[in-house]
Write a structure and sequence with these properties.
The complex is a heterodimer of chains A (312) and B (470). With 312 residues, chain A is mostly helical. Chain A folds into two domains: 45 residues, no CATH class; 241 residues, MetI-like fold (Orthogonal Bundle). Chain A is 73% helix and 1% strand. Chain A has a two-stranded antiparallel sheet. In chain A, helix 2 packs across helix 14. Chain A starts with 8 loop residues before the first helix and ends with a helix. Chain B is an alpha/beta fold. Chain B folds into two domains: 232 residues, Periplasmic binding protein-like II (D-Maltodextrin-Binding Protein, domain 2, 3-Layer(aba) Sandwich); 205 residues, Periplasmic binding protein-like II (D-Maltodextrin-Binding Protein, domain 2, 3-Layer(aba) Sandwich). In chain B, 49% of the residues lie in helices and 13% in strands. Chain B is built from 19 helices and ten strands. In chain B, strand 1, helix 2 and strand 2 form a beta-alpha-beta unit. Classes of the chains: A mainly alpha (312), B alpha/beta (470). At the A-B interface, helix 8 and helix 13 of A face helix 1, helix 3, helix 4, helix 11 and helix 18 of B.
């Protein structure tokens, strides 16, 4: 570059580009802090987790490299296979139910009625409470003999249930708590979406004689779909890695009927101290979250395409 | 039941359970005040007081030798931890050693201890350890200092602290296979039978002496329409193992054979599981599969269960009017005998010194003080634990100071005579409890005991083999 001390206006532009490449990158000092933080708190732990998953790594015993042996143990481990199934059922229910109830609540809270502000505030309260505190209160309410839920059932003539104290009802009962706590979040997201919809389509639909259901189905729902996807994504990630509520209420029981991947991972790593195998489970859990998130994004793109296609 | 009464029941039960902590605390404080007087009276008679309860011989340990040292102690949350923290100042006055301590809930404390010890640089010197879970793991990893030499050193050990003063179970827990003392046994947890005297009297039923009698009594005492049941106990996976092993041992079961193979699929285990299944499905409250000690205790204190087998340490809340509806009506006795044995499944905790601790002798002094007769008496009198030392249990002044029913104390003394380790001494105790415990819980939903135990056995065997190899 030093060979070109004088350049004419025509060549200046062409010569400037390579010259910039050789300039010391002035942005580096600004990038380094963020880069260090990302490397230290995200990349390094992940790389280390993957490294641990390739080793027989038991606390108090020497470490040995075992390659993919920990991953090969997974499909043969009945508790892990069960935990995957529990996680998928728990996640599906914990995403669907808050979405349905949250959307319904958003439609209701979008209407004008007396005391709406106060009721909205009350409605979002569960979301603000500490999960473990909630879990303890629900544990009391679920108690088959002393709990208030069975008392309420008895008032309407229904037989007492075993709730979280029976393997067949434990996951739906836990989902009930999850739904109670996280429906408000979905409501808030969807409410934002509904508020952004212009009034014209509704006016036009009313003139055309559309029913309330038709307006919801053909106007509201397509227009809030992107918001629903965001809510579904947040709920899904949260539900897959849910730990606090399940641990505090059932610790994965009765038996292992509510043991999700995250709970099993915790037991393996911190109760059995098998860090290598625990890391392999952590990697699989991460891949599952990525796969489910990718699936949702794919569905979202398809939905948007349909909207555009439908509009065209 | 009328609606308001039921609602009040629910609120009362849980509020009381919660409140129980504070009420229990207060009770312990009061009791410890009284017990101090009792201890002092007894000590005065012996011509000594406070820590001078160690007989004043020429070989009195040099308590002040390590004055100025600072020790860190990690404790599991509970009455033992409270006991140390409440009286640590007395230890500092005696020795000049500063004590910093931290109490953490049991599960988390176990994890923290293991992870820090494995790192080689633990932040603590003295460890409160859970024998039935951690014994083998700690021994194999070499995390604990050998205290045998210190125990023989007259400059470090009071003359009354001798190995033979600890109960057999305590010594089994504290000694490694070379006979070295790696910790000092602190508090033992015998499983006993709690029963509701009033319910038994109403039906005119005798207190069961055998497991068969217990089942028959439980059947007679069960009335689902009234919401009362003959028996309650732990059904929750892992926690349930501590109850089941009482049956297993009394059916003649042994955990391991001579080669170290696990034996939980044999005929004794199957019979014990059938009994467990029968009790928890036919004569226990519905939902018991999810019950840990807390739910079981709630059913018992509310007068809804006639019998409960669990650790000896639950007497204070049962006798606390703020937490229990059956104060003064609780009977205490040993676990009924089985066809091939008469045992109380025993668990316990100890206090040891980390191998990595730079001030092992000072740390040993603290361990010794914690298991001293004075501290043991305080622990017993407060109902916060049963010391492993026979001299504490046999001391008449100490016994007089116990405010809980003498029947309770007697059940602890009787259990000591029939105590047997309640879990196998292996490294993967937690996996064992989880896997076999899940099999037991499955039988509560109708699964066949033999099939479930076989499955659990197949699942656990390779884990045990792997743990012994590494």
């Amino acid at each position: 570059m030093t060979a070109l001390p004088h350049v004419g206006p025509a060549t200046a532009e062409a010569g400037a580009a390579p010259e910039r490449e050789w300039r010391p990158p002035s942005y580096w000092p600004f990038v380094i802090p963020a880069l260090v933080v990302v490397l230290a708190v995200i990349v390094f732990p992940w790389a280390f987790t993957i490294w641990m998953s390739l080793n027989e790594w038991k606390v108090g015993s020497p470490t040995t490299f075992v390659g993919l042996a920990n991953y090969l143990r997974l499909p043969k481990d009945p508790r892990f296979v069960e935990a995957v199934a529990h996680t998928l059922v728990y996640t599906a229910l914990s995403v669907l139910l808050p979405l349905v109830f949250g959307t319904f609540a958003a439609v209701v809270f979008h209407m004008n009625f007396l005391g709406r502000g106060v009721l909205r505030a009350i409605f979002i309260m569960p979301m603000m409470a500490t999960p473990v505190a909630i879990a303890l209160i629900w544990t009391m309410m679920f108690h088959p003999q002393l709990g208030v839920l069975n008392y309420l059932l008895s008032l309407v003539g229904l037989p007492p249930q075993l709730w979280v104290f029976h393997p067949s009802t434990v996951i739906p009962s836990l989902v009930l708590v999850e739904t109670w706590q996280w429906t408000p979040l979905v409501m808030l997201i969807v409410l934002g979406g509904i508020a952004a919809i212009p009034a014209e389509p509704y006016e036009s639909a009313q003139l055309d004689g559309a029913s309330l259901w038709q307006m919801f189905r053909y106007i509201t729902l397509p227009l809030i779909a992107p918001f629903l996807f965001i809510a579904a994504m947040i709920r899904m990630i949260d539900a897959v890695k849910s730990f606090d509520i399940i641990f505090a209420i059932t610790q994965g029981g009765p038996g292992s009927a509510s043991e999700t991947i995250n709970l099993y991972l915790y037991s393996v790593a911190f109760t059995y101290y098998d860090l290598g195998y625990g890391s392999a489970i952590a990697v699989i859990l991460f891949l599952l979250i990525v796969a489910l998130a990718a699936l949702l994004l794919h569905l979202r793109r398809r939905a948007q395409w349909t909207e555009t296609g439908g509009g065209a | 039941m009328a609606a308001p009464t039921f609602a009040a029941d629910i609120a009362l039960c849980y509020l009381r359970l919660e409140k129980n902590k504070t009420a229990g605390e207060k009770q312990r404080m009061e009791k410890s005040g009284i017990s101090r007087r009792a201890v002092l009276a007894g000590t005065a008679a012996a011509g000594a007081m406070g820590f001078a309860r160690f007989p004043a011989r020429a070989a009195e340990p040099q308590w002040k030798k390590f004055a100025g040292t600072k020790l860190e102690v990690i404790l599991a949350k509970g009455p033992r931890g409270d006991n140390l923290q409440r009286y640590a100042k007395e230890f500092t006055e005696l020795t000049g050693i500063q004590v910093e301590s931290e109490q953490i809930p049991e599960q988390q404390q176990r994890q923290k201890v293991v992870i820090e010890l494995a790192s080689g640089k633990p932040s603590f010197d003295v460890i409160h350890l859970s024998y039935h879970v951690q014994k083998r793991q700690f021994e194999k990893a070499g995390w604990l200092a050998n205290l045998s030499g210190y125990m023989k050193d007259a400059n470090l050990t009071a003359p009354d602290l001798v190995e033979s003063d600890f109960s057999a179970a305590g010594l089994q827990y504290a000694r490694n296979d070379k006979g070295q003392m790696l910790s000092l046994p602190w508090s033992v947890d015998y499983f006993i039978l709690y029963y509701n005297k009033e319910m038994f009297q109403k039906k005119g039923i005798e207190i069961p002496k055998t497991l068969d009698e217990m089942v028959l009594a439980a059947e007679k005492l069960t009335d689902p329409k009234e919401g009362t049941f003959g028996f309650v106990g732990r059904g929750l996976r892992n926690a349930n193992m501590t109850l089941w092993t009482n049956f297993f041992l009394n059916y003649g079961g042994e955990f391991l054979d001579a080669k170290g193979n696990i034996l939980t699929d044999g005929p004794e285990a199957i019979e014990a599981t059938k009994l467990y299944q029968r009790l928890l499905t036919k004569v226990a409250p519905p939902g018991v599969a999810g019950f840990n000690w807390m739910e079981s205790m709630a059913a018992f204190t509310q007068g809804r269960a006639a019998m409960w087998i669990d650790g000896v340490g639950w007497a204070p809340p049962l006798e606390d009017p703020a937490a229990s509806r059956i104060v003064g009506k609780v009977g205490y006795t040993i676990v009924p005998a089985g066809p091939k044995g008469k045992y109380s499944a025993t668990y316990g905790d100890g206090i040891g010194v980390a191998q990595a601790c730079p001030n092992k002798e000072a740390a040993y002094l603290l361990c010794q003080w914690l298991v001293s007769k004075t501290q043991g008496a305080r622990l017993l009198q407060a109902g916060g634990g049963v010391p492993f030392r026979n001299s504490v249990l046999d001391d008449s002044d100490t016994r007089k100071g116990v405010k809980l029913p003498q029947e309770w104390l007697q059940s602890a003394i009787d259990s000591a005579k029939i105590s047997k380790l309640g879990l196998p001494v292996i490294i993967p105790v937690a996996e064992f409890r989880d896997i076999v415990g899940a099999a037991l819980t499955a039988t509560l939903s109708g699964a066949d005991p033999a099939t479930e135990l076989k499955k659990a056995h197949e699942q656990f065997r390779p884990i045990l083999e792997r743990s012994e190899k590494t």
